[in-house]
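Justification of computing resources. Each target in the renewal requires a structure prediction run like the one illustrated here; the chain below, 299 residues long, is used simply to show the kind of job we budget for.
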Amino acid sequence: MELQNLLTYSKVCEFMSFSKAADQLGYAQSTITTQIAQLEDELGVKLFDRSGKRIRLNAKGQELLLYANRLIALASEAKSNVSDAKTPRGSLRIGVIESVGAFFLPDILENYLMTFPEVRVQVLTATTREIMEMLRQNKIDLMLTLDDRIYDPDWICAWLREEDIVFLCAPNHPFSGRMDILLEELVLENLLLTERQCNYRYTFEQICEKNQISPRSSLEIGCTNTILRFTEHNIGVTFLPELTARESLATGRLSRFAVKGVSIRMLIQLIYRKSMWCTPAMKAFIEKIRNTYNQDHPV
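Resulting structure tokens:
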């Protein structure tokens, strides 16, 4: 079984498209078709279900993809170790949710890129569910998310940190500085909410549902910075990861308050796939975060 054919197969699976794989690899589409046909002939099975121009991995195809990714990772690891190419270089693809990407990554990346100028970093922002799927499809190398503890037999959590979700309002709002707000009072306010797929919003809505309470008015906003600005202008109140509001709180543009019986805490988690090789660029990024936040989890 040719390694090049497995590389091509992995790329076709990533895009679910022969033509897009050909563009990425710089091949003619006929070359991609031939390499996949060679794999299918060698294995004696079809790897894709075809419907017109669309393709979908079948059970055998999914099974082969696991082996293909392991072999590709092992080949890359062997090349690096034998050639002594320990210096981080090449590409590093990071999938991150918007709030963590905007408020957690900048300082880390600035230092990382100055230390390892030969690494090309690509940051992709999406919802937690979307970046999980990107990781499964090998579209990213590392996933940085904010969620409850995530478990998957093929995933390794290289680093994590607890993050409080805090309630925020303008300094001149009646809730400012109070620690005794009732949930029934809160839901009468105009709530500035993140997108519906957001994990801490889901947790809050579950608390409301458990208490048989529904928010009276809400405004859904997909950008954390916009939520912060709207809250500063007293358009409503909100709840966000503490890291996103640190600057606004320190400068007095926002105030905190607490809601009785409501405490939401999530984990910032840095995750990669066990079945894929942890490249020098990935290891260096993990170590940069660990050293910055003084935590150590085995890679």
